[in-house]
UniProtKB/TrEMBL annotation:
It holds the Pfam family Glycos_transf_2. PANTHER family: GLYCOSYLTRANSFERASE (PTHR43685), GLYCOSYLTRANSFERASE 2-LIKE DOMAIN-CONTAINING PROTEIN (PTHR43685:SF2). This is Glycosyltransferase family 2 protein. Residues 26-197 form the Glycosyltransferase 2-like domain. It comes from Rhodopseudomonas palustris. InterPro entries: Glyco_trans_2-like, Glycosyltransf_2, Nucleotide-diphossugar_trans. One of its GO terms (molecular function) is transferase activity. Keywords: Transferase. SUPFAM superfamilies: Nucleotide-diphospho-sugar transferases.
Length: 383
């Protein structure tokens, strides 16, 4: 039993300890999700960059089930795996902090147990942070795709995927304060900055990564690699199980914690300096700057109202047109039925008319002869 300095009890299995040849500490948190864990372990093992060490933190999950799952992976991981077991769940950020305290590598990456990396992820990020010209960067992110999936009959089914649209260039501090711009799976940061900014906030049930990223930007910039090298996996809404995402099925909790993070950030700014007046002045200037935009929005609302009214009239016209077309269709059907019955009624007459064709020919010949004789008689009288 190893006791860390935050008094969290853990069991460090003898499958491996940090070695001096690894450059990246990969921290993975898990709890009773074996179906997804297989995929994430494979994601790490398939990295072309091999100087990494995986810290797998079992946050209160079934220890025996996890150890049974890991049995097949131990020969492949060798000494590059450290497993930590929390007897009870301490939360995501506490799990990350436990591994952060144990690791000694130069770089750190958080790899959740449901996400994935492209095989070149670590190679690209470590290469970026190792270049002399990039020493000013405290971390680096990559392009990311969001993979939507569902659990069906004990298997993971991909629904669709799309590019992560909130982080497609260099990370702006102002943008990051407004909202978290990238998921944890995209980021690799220098472990040395943790001494300056502190660990993850264990009081936050969600959005601990956003709070950590804001503090990370306080001490330096975060670079960006444009290649899509990370996969951020979401289960479809309504899963509500151990395989759920907090970002999907915990939307309300995310909103509440977002407000808490913003309020704490403002309090930290105004704690030492009386900046309420400055904030009020900035707010007033923002209101002035936004006035034209508000007018445009009002005009847009009016345009939308008119468009809604017109769409309503168009919808009524369409309904009327549909009604007329239905009536026409009904009339056509009636005409078609009448035509069928008329054809049936006229069929005997048509048959008789065709049978009388020879007689009609003879009558026509007689009529022709009669007309000829009449014409001759008229000629004689005229003489």
């Amino acid at each position: 039993m190893v006791m860390l300095d935050n008094s969290l009890p853990m069991v460090d299995t003898p499958c491996g300890r940090p070695d001096e040849t690894s450059d990246v500490a990969v921290i993975m948190r898990t709890k009773n999700r074996p179906l997804l864990l297989h995929r994430s372990l494979s994601s790490v093992l398939l990295q072309s960059f091999e100087r990494w060490h995986l810290y797998l933190v079992n946050d209160g999950g079934d220890q025996f089930e996890l150890e049974d799952l890991l049995r097949m992976y131990r020969p492949v991981f060798g000494s590059r795996l450290t497993v930590m077991h929390h007897e009870v769940s301490k939360g995501m950020e506490a799990a990350s902090n436990a591994a952060l305290r144990a690791c000694r590598e130069e770089f750190v990456a958080i790899h959740d147990d449901d996400d994935t990396w492209n095989p070149e992820f670590l190679s690209s990020t470590v290469s970026f942070l190792s270049e002399r010209k990039n020493k000013c960067f405290v971390g680096v992110t990559t392009g990311c795709k969001v993979v939507f999936e569902r659990i069906s009959d004990g298997a993971v089914e991909k629904v669709h995927e799309e590019l992560w649209r909130f982080n497609q260039g260099p990370i702006s501090y102002s943008d990051l304060i407004v909202a978290n711009r990238f998921p944890p799976i995209c980021l690799v940061f220098r472990r040395s900055v943790v001494k300056e900014i502190g660990l993850f906030d264990e009081a936050l049930p969600v959005l601990g990564d956003w709070d950590f990223n804001i503090r990370l930007m306080r001490v330096g910039d975060i670079g960006f690699i444009r290649q899509t090298l990370a996969g951020y996996h979401h289960r479809t809404a309504g899963t509500n199980s151990v395989y759920s995402n907090t970002v999907v099925d915990g939307v309300q909790m995310h909103r509440e914690q977002e407000v808490a993070v913003r309020n704490r950030l403002l309090r930290s700014v105004t704690r030492d300096l009386p900046m309420e007046g400055l904030l009020q002045a900035i707010t007033q200037q923002v209101d002035v700057a936004l006035a034209p935009l508000k007018q445009q929005m009002a005009s847009f609302d009016e345009y939308q109202r008119l468009l809604s009214e017109r769409s309503g009239s168009v919808e009524a016209s369409l309904q009327q047109l549909v009604s007329v077309s239905l009536q026409a269709h009904s009339t056509i059907n009636e005409i078609s039925v009448t035509a069928v019955w008329l054809r049936k009624m006229l069929r005997p007459i048509h048959w008789s008319w065709r049978r009388m064709l020879p007689i009609r020919h003879r009558i026509a010949l007689w009529r022709g002869r009669f007309r000829t004789l009449s014409a001759d008689g008229s000629s004689v009288h005229s003489r």
